[in-house]
Write a structure and sequence with these properties.
The chain is of the alpha+beta class. The chain is built from 8 helices and 18 strands. The chain starts with a helix and ends in an 8-residue tail after the last helix.
Length: 366
């Protein structure tokens, strides 16, 4: 027993390997540097007391998104809503200024500043939309804020995406409910001002599209099946399943999802093809056939999606989504979309030939 205890003591007294110790020291120094830079940033932000201080403290005023507005708890006179961006770290902040330029309120505690957790520099590029309306029925004007973000690295590098947020007016200040902001962004309810308002003010949500476990649950929450594209298919590795495309309508948008449902009514797989588009404009067709020559049925969806352009104008894109069946589920295509840019002239049958040709094979009358 004594020998065993001695062995444990000897083991616990072994020195930390040199490489590991060096890494620990590097991590510690990096953390200390991050804290130092963050404190410097916070000090610059705290020093903004007047609109005239913005540029001097390293921030850029976003003038085109600055608006005069009545904020009830700040008095009867108009105040100015003024967003600013830290030029070095792309961190956004909101200022409320009086007619003399004095800052009555400011905050940088925004959802868009939390896209990269633990990092000072953020991916915020610009403001996509701002709106002022009472969302919680307390008679005070709240702020809806949507920003455009773009990752410089990672899987979604170079793709613009939205981040939504709500600032609720209190007594001379504003507060955020992080749970609301989390759901707005986690369930893609950040596409427009109307989308966010419909969720926060009216309690209508598309969360069920991502959390439902049965088709019945979807239908009970307003899911509308696109019947002409709904059918049963035998998937070699997944079994006999019902392919169920459909939408939930929220505000003026149709939010599109496709599900595979087993014979007991349970969801076994789901596909989100809209990405950052606002609305399903039209579904042109869908097929379940082997696309890549491995003997297993894949899924091809051809649809048109709409979104608001830079000036708010309606834009419509045609998009082909391909999901290849694998032994453990389905894998979304990442290559064919770079090879072929869809147009409104594309058809499902034409795409089947193109996709199979891309993979170097064809099968007739399958």
């Amino acid at each position: 027993m004594a020998a065993g205890i001695l062995a444990v003591c000897v083991l616990t007294l072994q020195p930390v390997p040199v490489v590991q110790a060096e890494q620990i020291q590097e991590d510690k120094e990096a953390l200390e540097q991050l804290i130092k830079l963050y404190n410097e940033y916070e000090a610059r932000f705290a020093a903004i007391e007047n609109v005239s201080d913005i540029e001097e403290k390293g921030f850029l005023a976003i003038e085109e998104q600055s608006f005069p507005v009545i904020m009830e708890s700040f008095g009867e006179e108009e105040v100015t809503f003024l967003p600013v961006m830290d030029e070095e770290y792309s961190r956004m902040a909101v200022l409320i200024a009086d007619s003399e330029g004095n800052i009555l309120y400011k905050t940088n505690r925004l959802e868009t500043n939390n896209r990269r957790l633990g990092e000072l520099k953020q991916p915020t590029k610009d403001i996509a939309a701002v709106s002022f309306q009472d969302l919680n029925g307390d008679g005070l004007t709240d702020i809806i804020l949507i920003t455009d973000c773009e990752n410089e690295t990672g899987e979604y590098e170079g793709r613009i995406y939205k981040t939504g947020d709500v600032l609720f007016q209190g007594q001379g200040d504003f507060y955020r409910d992080w749970r609301i902001s989390d759901k707005i962004n986690r369930f893609s309810m950040n596409k427009s001002i109307d989308f966010i308002a419909t969720y926060v003010r009216d309690g209508i949500s598309v969360e069920v599209l991502y959390t439902a476990t049965t088709l019945e649950e979807l239908l009970n929450n307003g899911f509308q099946i696109i019947q002409e594209q709904c059918y049963w298919r035998s998937f070699e590795k997944q079994g006999y399943l019902r392919v169920v495309p459909g939408v939930i309508k929220m505000a003026e948008y149709n939010i599109f999802m496709i599900y595979l449902i087993n014979e007991q009514g349970y969801i076994v797989w789901s596909f989100q093809t809209m990405e950052d588009y606002d609305n399903l404009y039209s579904m042109k067709g869908m097929t379940c056939r082997d696309m890549d020559g491995d003997g297993m049925k894949d899924i091809v969806i051809l649809a048109r999606y709409s979104y608001a352009g830079p000036e708010g104008e309606l834009q419509v894109d045609t998009k082909c989504s391909i999901f290849y069946q694998r032994t453990d589920g389905f894998e979304e295509d990442k290559e064919f979309s770079d090879y072929h840019q869809c147009t409104s002239e594309d058809t499902v049958s034409g795409l089947v030939e193109l996709i199979r040709g891309y993979w170097g094979w064809t099968v007739e009358n399958d």
